Amino acid sequence: MVLPNILAVLAxxxxxxxxxxxxxxxxxxxxxxxxxxxxxxxxxxxxHFQPPxxxxxxxxxxxxxxxxxxxHGLQFFQINPDFDCFMCVNxxxxxxxxxxxGLYHLFYQYNPKGAVWGNIVxxxxxxxxxxxxxxxxxxxxxxxxxxxxGCWSGSATVLPNGGPVIFYxxxxxxxxxxxxxxxxxxxxxxxxxxxxxKPDDNPIVNPDASVNGSAFRDPxxxxxxxxxxxxxxxxxxxxxxxxxxxxxxxxxxxxxAKHPLHSVQGTGMWExxxxxxxxxxxxxxLDPSVMGQNVKHVLKVSLDMTRYEYYTLGTYDKKKDRxxxxxxxxxGWAGLRLDYGNFYASKTFYDPSTNRRxxxxxxxxxxxxxxxxxxxxxxxxxxxxxxxxxPSGKQLLQWPVAELEKLRGHTIQLSHQKLxxxxxxxxxxxxxxxxDVDVTFSxxxxxxxxxxxxxxxxxxxxxxxxxxGSKAPGGLxxxxxxxxxxxxxxxxxxxxxxVFKAADKHKVLLCSDARSSSLGEGLYKPSFAGFxxxxxxxxxxxxxxxxxxxxxESFGAGGRIAITSRVxxxxxxxxxxxxxxFNNGSETITVESLNAWSMNKPVMNVPVKS
Length: 610
Ligand code: DQQ
What we know:
It catalyses: Hydrolysis of terminal non-reducing beta-D-fructofuranoside residues in beta-D-fructofuranosides. This protein is mainly beta.
C-alpha cells in the first residue's frame, strides 16, 4: 500500500494547511464560470451517461421504482419470513403514489457554468431502462440561506406515505460550512418530478460542537429499524473517518445517536458513505430496511485522501446501532474495492421492479484541467451495475445491468483460437472504439505461473502491474485484450491477467494499464490493477470490457473484480481504433469463446417534452 500511504500523507498535509477547511474537489476559479461554446466530440462517450457539456461528478439520489412492481415487493417480503422488515410491508402497502410511471431518476452533481467543479446543482435525468436518458431542469440549486453556497451530494428515500424525499448537503458560507437539508417534490402527480421544494424548516441536521462542520456531508438513504428512521452522514474527527448516525421517529426531527455507526482511525474524511443489506443467498437485492438472519450489511466509504473507495461486509447491530466488519476483512486503505480504477462517490439503490441492487459510480477525467476546459466537458457516469453477495460471503459481485445489451449491434465471434507467446490477433468488430467484449480464456495448466515475489505483498496491485506490465514476457500471462489500439500498437490500453504462484496459492492479477494508452501529453496514465480471488480449478478466466472512446470499464472473473480506466488515444480513435486478443506468456492460451459487439448509441440528453 505504498501509493495510498504517500497519498494519505500528502492529503493530510493539504487538509491541515487549509486549517481543516475541506473543499473535496480541486478549485480552478478562473475556469469555473466559462460557458462552453464548442464542445469537442473527440473522446466523448457513446453509451455512457454524459450531459451535453460541462462538469459532472457524484451520482446522487436514487431512482424511483416502477408502478406495478410494488406488488412484487410486497409478495417478496411476505413469503420471506427470514427477513425482518416490519416497515417494509407497510412501505409497500402504503406505496401507491410513489411510483412514477416506470421512470428511473438520476440526479448528479453538475456545474451548469463550466467544465471544472463549481456552482454545483443537482442535475436531473430520467430513463425507463437505465440506458436511454431524457433530461430535465436541475432538481435542486442554491436558492436559500441554507444552501446558498452549494447543493452537494445526498440521497433520496421513498417514504411510506408515498413521497420521495431528498436529503442533501447545503453549503452555507465561503468556508464550506456544511449542514443537511431536505427537499420534496412540488407535485407528486408529476411522474417526472420536475420541481422540488426546499421547505423553510430546513436544515434537518446541524453539526453540534463535537462535529467538524466543514467535513460533514453526503447523507445516505434512510432505513427503518427499532422504531426509528436512520441516516448516516460522512465526516472525520482529526484523522479518523466517521459515519455519524442520526435517528428520527417522524422523518423531521433528527437526533444524533450516542455513537457513530462506525469509524476508523487514519482513514481521513469519509465522503459518500453507503450502507445497505445484501442477501446471504442468491442475487436478489434488498430494500435498505430489510434486516435479519439471512442478511449481511455492506459499508462503503469514499476516501477523500486517496480518492479511492473501499468497503467491508459485516453485521449491523440494530439495537446498539453499531456496525461490525467481518473478521479478516481489511477496514482501511487496503480494503476491498468496488472498482480498482477511476471510480468514486458511488451509490447503490434497490430497484424492486427487478429485485436488484444497482450501483452507480462516477469516473472523472485523467487529462489536464486545461484540456477539460478546451474540450468543454469533464466526467462521466459509469454503466449501472447489479451488485450482490458472492456465495463465499467474502466479497460482492458486480455485472453491468442487462438492459445495456439492448444496445448491442453487429457481432464478431471467435472460438478455440490458440494464442502462443507473442501472438496478437485482431477482433474485427465494426466499431472497436464503442464496443462490448465478453471473452473466456483457458489454459492447459498452472505450472508455468511465475513466482510471486513476497515483497509485492506490501505493494498496491497497481505497483505490481507497473513492474510487470503487458509487454514483459511471463509464464501464465500476460494475456487478455488490447483495447483502443492503433494498427501498429503505438497506442493501446491492455486489460490482462497475470497468474503468479505464491507460497500457499495462486494469485491472479488483473491490470488495466493506461501507460501505453496515448501519445498525448499531460495525461495521468496509471497502471490500475487488483488481485482477484478466483478458483482456477477449471483453468479458465473470463473478462468483459465495455469500451467507449475514452473509457474502458472491465469486469474480471464473472464480476469478482472491476477496473475502470479513462484514456485519450490520439490515433486509435473512432474508426481507426482496433481491438486485439494477445498473449505474452510462455503458456499457450486458448480463446475459448469471444463475442465482441458494436454498441449503438442510446437516447441521451433529449429534453423531456413539457
Ligand atoms: N462531491 C460532493 C461532496 C462529496 C464529493 C461535492 C465527493 O458532497 O463529498 O460536489 O466527490
